[in-house]
Amino acid sequence: MNGYILRRLLQLIPVLFGISLVVFLIMALLPGDPALAILGPYATPESLASLRNELGLEEPLWRRFFIWLGNVLQGDLGRSVALQRPVVEEIGERIGPTLLLAAAALALSVVLGLGAGVVAAAHRRRWQDQVLTFLVLLGISVPQFWLALLLILVFAVWLHWLPVSGMFSVYAGGGLIDLLQHLLLPAISLAVVATGVLARLSRGAMLEELSQDYVRMARAKGLTERQVLYKHAFLNMLGRMVPVIGLQAGFLLGGAVYIETVFQWPGMGRMLVDAISSRDLLLVQGGVLVLASAYVLVNLLADVLQHALDPRIRRR
Question: How far apart are CA 222 and CA 75, in angstroms?
Answer without folding.
Answer: 60
